[in-house]
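To whoever is on call:

I kicked off a structure prediction for a single chain this morning and the downstream step that reads the tokens threw a length-mismatch warning. I double-checked the sequence; it's 248 residues and nothing unusual in it as far as I can see. Pasting both halves so you can look.
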Amino acid sequence: MRTVILIDDDIWALADMRETFHFDRYGFEIMGEYQSAEDAVSAMERLRPDLIISDICMSAGTGLDLAALCAEKYPDTVMILVSGHERFDYAREAIRQGVFAYLLKPLLDSEVAQTMERLLKQLPEKEADAKPALPGNVAMDSLIGRALSYIDEHYNVSLPLESVAEALFVNKSYLSDLFSKTVGMTFTQYKNTVRIGHARELIRKGGLSMTEVAAQTGFDSSSRFSKVFHQIEGISPQQFQNRERDRH
């Protein structure tokens, strides 16, 4: 499943995005919702979403700033901008930054549907995966490739960097530096992203308390799990659970 993050400083506008874009219908999963450009920049680095949908005018930073950053650092990420202002200079700058679409508020179902159908024709096929996207230069038989595999296989137990370094017979500091340079996130960020990916699936399936979900995904406490979940998803585990229930 492809991933998307939503950015708008108005919580009602975020709700409108969720309802109007029908992400499930088009094979997208919402990874987070953010109310400032600053929080969104951090999320872009951690999550590397396939799609970003952002308002242009926000109280801190603009969607155009995010589009410029996205074009520079994440060229494979698609950007859609929405705005309540029908200004040519906004549209012109959006085009200059390579934005896929520029939609006006209030969002119209027909325009959104046309945009998403056009987007699907452009995007390559993608398999569903709980792991974050990785750079194409990571060979799975390399040191970092083996580190990733080890994390993926042991995410549900206590997994300090030291234990991975020992398992791979390599210096901890060397592995830490190489991991960050190669993967684009720290060891802990990757480990937590994998864990939260599995946590999302457990919450969707239902039948477990948040304490049980935390334990099954390697967290030593439900409070730590909740904190990390909110950092990555932008909402609490309970809010995520409620949102999933509302969808069904």
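Update from on-call: the warning came from a stale cache, not from the record. Cleared it. Sanity check on the structure: The two ends are 18 Å apart (CA to CA).
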